[in-house]
Design brief:
Blueprint: H1 14-39, E1 42-46, H2 47-55, H3 78-95, E2 100-105, H4 111-114, H5 127-147, E3 154-163, E4 169-177, H6 186-190, H7 204-213, E5 266-268, E6 271-273, H8 283-289, E7 293-297, H9 303-311, H10 333-338, H11 345-352, E8 358-360, E9 376-380, H12 385-390
Antiparallel strand pairs: 1-9, 2-4, 2-7, 3-4, 3-8, 5-6
Amino acid sequence: MRNGDQSNLLHIGRLLQQYSVDTYVKLETSRLEFHRGKQNKLRTEAYQGLLDVIAKGFTNASNVGKHIILPASFIGGPRDMRRRYMDAMTLVQRYGKPDIFLTMTCNPSWPEIKNHLLETDECQNRPDLITRVFRAKIEQLKEDLFKKHLFGHVAAYTYVIEFQKRGLPHTHFLIILKEQSKMFSPKEYDNIVCAELPDRHQSPYLYSVVIKHMLHSPCGSMNPSNPCMWQNHKCRNNYPKDFSKYTKHGKNFYPIYKRQDDGSKVYIRQHELDNRWIVPYNPYILAKYDCHINVEICSAIEAVKYIYKYIYKGHDRVMYQLTAEQADKIIYEIKNFQSARWVCAPEAMWRIYAFDLNLISSSVILLHLHLENYQSMSLDKNRPLTDVIQDDRLS
């Protein structure tokens, strides 16, 4: 960011949000139109499928094969996300289950953001600033984790960037440690994760950031309308947790962290909260980055698929439902991707800047294995099928 930047575009309030979203949607639509235009002529089908069609007496390729698909080369599409999920699961096959699950959310009150706002600016109206500062924080976090070995030596990792509907970006890290750094006992878990209020006199700064970022909002009988509440009136994150004198292995994905009933309490929105409401965190990282940064130990192998699918679930969508007497039998993947798409201003800016939306530490090479005569083929719909079958370059 340049000091004293007087660009009118960056200081037009909510219009910058609208401008950034409109600009990115135009870019994305142009890219999707490229794929849609190519598929008006091209089809894909297995070699054996073409043989079956020819055997039935058909020679026209216009009605053969799949079309109007969103290929895996389109970043952020469902095929791309599935491919990345499979790549991430390959890390598990090679290095074992993940050891640490870390979630970091952008703090709009970071000095790097506040110091570059004019008196009339609001942070939500500067998506360019939010995305660039958050990316810088992620790079700094990666250096702490993978170069300074904050949690130990890392064998492999993957992370994704997501955008909440209210606009703030956040990231999910899955970290696999090397054998000499792995944690097996609750005592080792306590060296990394804390789920209690710190002493406000011995660690006043840490106490303040825990209260500011790591307290779960009052829910249940205190606030039945909290967004975390299911229809059965239970918190989807199972807060408040139970008190526990010691950290111990849990029955589900994560350990049961130490949450002592030591009388520590804090008042939030006229409600009294204690250690049962603390979101697990790492004291050093929380104090350094001053934002919501949840750190969890992955103690059970059953958590692997759930967590990896969670971080590769794809973009947000608006919920709606339409019914028709005759549904179109052709699945238009490009149209489905665009329908009900939710794009916020920070996501638009992030994509315009071409920042990474996800990253995996190891390269994974996809091998296209197939049965004999079942290799995938691309063909022009205007070309006779008999010519396609005889073309050695395609078969």
